[in-house]
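An example makes the point: we print one protein in full, the chain in one-letter code, the fold tokenised, without further comment:
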Amino acid sequence: TSPAAVGLHRRLRAELDDGDPARPGPRPFRPHLSVARVRGDPRGRRAREAVAGLPPLAGPGHTFDAVRVALYRSQLRSQGARYSVLADVDLPQSGG
């Protein structure tokens, strides 16, 4: 985990803390990038099958250009999680 990601997490957590005592305590910070969600696949079988034949997506030579960052709220419900965008920002693009 990069120091920049940890610093951003701390600033966001401090800014968004509403002081609600019913809110669960802090969980370990695990930065991640969600690239897809598969509904109706609670054990992840379909998702694993879909990516089984893909080449590795991490390591030297594997990059991507992010164009936007979004902060989501996840509300867990019996019908499944509901996600809503709290804020988003377009990222500056490199010239090349």
Remarks:
- The longest helix spans residues 3-16.
